Amino acid sequence: MRRLLIPVTLVTLLIVAIQLSVFSSLRFAGVVIMIVWLWPLAMGLAGLTALALWSAVIAGIFFDTHTTTPFGLTAVVALALAYGASRLGREGVGDLESAAWWVTPLIAGGAGLLAPPLFVGASFFTLNFSLWRDSLLAAMVVNAVAFFLLARPMTRLARWVGSFGGSRR
Amino acid sequence: MATDRSRRRTWTLSVAALATLVILYLTTGVASGLRSGANLVVSPFSWAVNEIARPVGHFFAGTVNYSDVVAQNQKLRFQLGEAEERANQGWAYARQLQQLTTELNVPFVGSLPTVAAQVTTLSPTNFAATVDISKGRDSGILVGMPVVANGGLIGSVIGTTPHGATVRLITDTASLVGVTFNAGKTDIVVSGRGLNSGLSASSVPLGTSIVQGTKLSTDGLNGGLFPAGLPVATVKTVTLTPGAATYNLTLQPAADLRHLTYVDVVLWEPSS
To answer: Do B61 and A123 touch (CB under 8 A)?
Structure first.
């Protein structure tokens, strides 16, 4: 786990940079695809529980320093997704080799659908009640589709990064 | 029984811890301190990674949007020609209006100094309508200053660094702008509905003369957040819910917020 901290941190930072430079300007139906949420999810599905939580914190905190939304909210949602996915990953549910090809994308799609309302729900704890007003439904649909499509390559990347440590779990 | 009690104790402690964290988060500036600290630590690394990733982003964006860019360029050239023609016709009126407003002691943006800046980043999230610009405190830009571009008000400065600033757009869900119409007889508050959803206003009194296409500009009321006369929006729809005593409006921002490249920061502070 300790040996993997540096590669996972570096890849997570790269994901944040790609999010900020590529995905934030490449909007679909005006919606940003949040790969900073997909990455910890993929790590979780790959069964790397502790590293998934670590990457969720790093990705969320780094991303939050670049936005005006309440600080820490992206990290909280990423943590929730990473935790949920790692529970499934540990059971081998999202495993790319043993599960059917559509299982991982379907889980990721569900997470993409759930993440934006989770973000808005978490914002209520910071007494911010205005975030729901934007196109929440569009954000849910676009992120669900994008997560569905990107889930397998992202999980493969997570497994590849995880292989630096010698074992998967 | 003992299990129930310990479970209840765990829940109580969790709720108490959560409540404490929320109170600390909201009252002691912990979030602000964390944000500044994290930003300070990561900014050199983030800058380096960003410099590598940005060309990739431009490559993809250029590939996908090239035909749009060409069409937009042609349209802009046409609009520039029209605007130049209008500017030539309108300079005399502008001068006269400036003289009149000076006499009436109403701030007029034409006489206020501005700082031109380039838009560097669009908000990276779905939940905030903001842009970052290339000028900051070193150019005299302060928090609260209005920002105009593309023919109208686009927002106000909410954060500054020595060489940059963050502008909250008027379409942000946290944005509120006081506007006036009907020859200054009616003042209302316009609120943002998100980057993709424009603006809205409610509580417009019945009997007010307002129709589709009515133009709204900042009211410049004493103590207000914006100087008077900045174009804000045009009325798109006027709706009246049966039984309600007020109109609801949906509004189209006067400025094109989807294509922001350069902006002018008006060097005007709300307290001035």
So the answer is: no
